[in-house]
Amino acid sequence: MARLRHILAAWWHKAELLSPLIFLMLVSFLLALLLSGGEDVVRASSLFQSPLPPPPLQEPTATPLPPVASPEPTATPPPTETPVPPLEPVTTALPPEATVAAPAETPPESSPSAPPPEASGEASEAGLTPETPEEPGAPEGSSPLIFNWGVFLNTVIITLAYIWICCGVCGLLGTPLTFVLLYVWGKRRLAQKLEESRETEPTPGRTAS
Amino acid sequence: MRYSIQGARVRYTLLALGWVAFALRAYHLDFQSLWRDEVDAITFATRAFPRLLATFTRPKENGPLYFLLLRPWITLTGDSEFSVRFFSLAWGVLAVPLAYALGRQWLSSRASMLGALLMAFSPYLVWYSQEARMYTLITFLTMLSLYLYVKALNTGRWLYWVAYVVATSFCLYTHILAALIIPLEIILFVFWWSRHRVRLKPWLVVMGCVTLPYIPLAIWEIPLLLSSYETGHPFYPLPEILKILFFAFSHGVSGAGRSWLLILLSVLFSFLFLAGVFLKGTGAWRERVTLLFYLFLPIVGVYLISLGMPIFTDRYLIYVAPAFYFILARGLAAVKLRSNAVFALCLALALALDGQSIWVQAHTRIKSDFRSTARYFALHHKPDDLVIFLMPYVRHTFEYYYRHTYHWADGPYTNAGLRERELATTLGKATEGYRSIWLVASEAELWDRRGLVKAWLEENGRLVEGREFARVKLYHYELK
């Protein structure tokens, strides 16, 4: 009997040690369901290739186009569903290097004027501009500090909502679990106390001797 | 005697881990074709030396130190895919023993060793150890900076302070966003105030010294980071940033994979993370909070910058990955205190899932495959064919693999609303005198999301053949 009690006590000790692990496992299961939902995960994996900023804006006079190709800026939208940034007039859409294509047999170094090799790297790292800084027009896209308070507040509220929901879920699961644990713990304590009191009570045989 | 045996065991284990990390990173090192950023790294590193040096003070230059270090390496070993990537691999391998040393500042020996093990097996770090960019270097340097910083604060030795200033300055010149390590270090000093206040004077001097080399950068960097400059990056809310980083650090870049595997991985890593944060184990709560600062402060920093100028990409925050692995390792160590069986199961599962992700990364063509494109083009083109690149930046990558003379033109940018009539004029001029046209399309949606260039070619020519490689499409047209 004592051996059985010893084994049970050991099991209880083990269960006590493992109970936080079980609780954490439940929480992490919920978290995993939350995390692995949606298509964002797939999108995250494709982030290893940097996006590029749009090519530098160009003054309409810089690349004169044939008369047929010089409509009023942004007067008629292009035939597409894709929204077009209103800032860029139609005549400025063409990067300078794209207009040239030498049919003559020229080596690549001297053939069409392409963006310098730096362009791609600068553009792709830390989202910097694709031009070399000597080129004019680079700071056109920048402006002094514009802090997007709307997005910030939105994120704060959503984050708080996430925390609130998590607390709710934890409360929902945790409350019955706490009662169960309290019940088991109380029973154990009661059994212990009974045992202690039984041990401390003087036995009639002893008093007689 | 016991101490030395313990020390020797740690050294041998670290050595073994280093070899494992090396093997995992060297395996299929050149399997993926170089992508445009890697080719740019070679171009930048091999440009004229005065131009390379000028990038240290020139605005909008990111990571000039990496290119400066890569230059002698390329001179020594050549510009093959294997050699340029080996440079990153070396830093990735060195980061593993350094992880142990850094982890020991806040964690038990066992947890630190587990942290180093998780770093060695991390599919994310393996991926970037196989990329010819500065990401493993920046991970190594930020870890070194933090290690020297904590050592200096603990011991007060000037050698550590000086080394810390050098390492931190290197960080700043290796990646623009590594500057966020300084606010982190300041906050750590304040957080550990009761222990480190005796070092206030040297700390102030050293912080001044760290700021000095940063001034040339800060002059252009801070206004740029606070501006609303259009970067091309989308804006990500903070929960999404956290989600992306969680999957990147735990799963690498190989995509979602099977859904059950994804859920298993999420459960396991969330469990270990929560165990690392909440379970009592060896070490006080302060160490745990320090690791959370290390993980989250730079993330919040990037998020705040992104509110003005979207800049978030997971790899820019690669240097917080060690904190993530330390927390997981602490979780594993805390689980071991409770159950050896659960610990063994979790560790085996984590390593198996990491191994699976590394395997997928090493056997799936994920990066744009210009190697195969150039090889196919070399076999099938005629000398007076014209190649149109869409988008134009990828030409440099193509030319890394195809180093012969050929005729080329850049595809016009149509995303700003170029109309079909204007496009026809432009393309008509560009293709004048050519009968055979090749269209190399990669990331074309960034340049021509309506597909107008291809539509024009199909209207004015006949598609002879079309080949699809990973993230690259190659079309051959005969013009009418």
Mind sketching the topology for me?
The complex is a heterodimer of chains A (209) and B (480).
Chain A: H1 2-35, H2 40-45, H3 118-124, H4 149-200, H5 204-208
Chain B: H1 2-26, H2 36-45, H3 49-54, H4 64-77, H5 81-103, H6 109-121, H7 123-129, H8 135-155, H9 158-172, H10 181-191, H11 193-196, H12 200-225, H13 238-251, H14 259-278, H15 285-308, H16 321-338, H17 340-363, H18 370-380, E1 386-390, H19 395-401, E2 407-410, H20 420-430, E3 436-441, H21 452-460, E4 461-469, E5 472-479
Parallel strand pairs in B: 1-2, 1-3
Antiparallel strand pairs in B: 3-5, 4-5
Helix pairs in contact in B: 1-5, 1-6, 2-4, 5-6, 5-7, 5-8, 6-16, 7-17, 8-9, 9-12, 10-15, 14-16, 14-17, 15-16, 16-17, 18-19
Describe this structure in words.
The complex is a heterodimer of chains A (209) and B (480). Chain A has 209 residues and is mainly α. Chain A has a domain at 155-183. In chain A, 50% of the residues lie in helices and 0% in strands. The two termini of chain A are 28 Å apart. In chain B, helix 16 runs antiparallel to helix 17. The radius of gyration of chain B is 25 Å and the shape is globular. The N and C termini of chain B lie far apart (86 Å). A five-stranded mixed β-sheet of chain B has the order 2-1-3-5-4, with helices on both faces. The model of chain B has no long low-confidence stretch (mean pLDDT 91). By secondary structure, chain B is α/β, with parallel strands linked by helices. Helix content of chain B is 65%, strand content 7%. At the A-B interface, helix 1, helix 2, helix 3 and helix 4 of A face helix 2, helix 13, helix 14, helix 15 and helix 19 of B.
Task: Produce a short descriptive summary.
Chain A is built from five helices and no strands. Chain A is mostly helical.
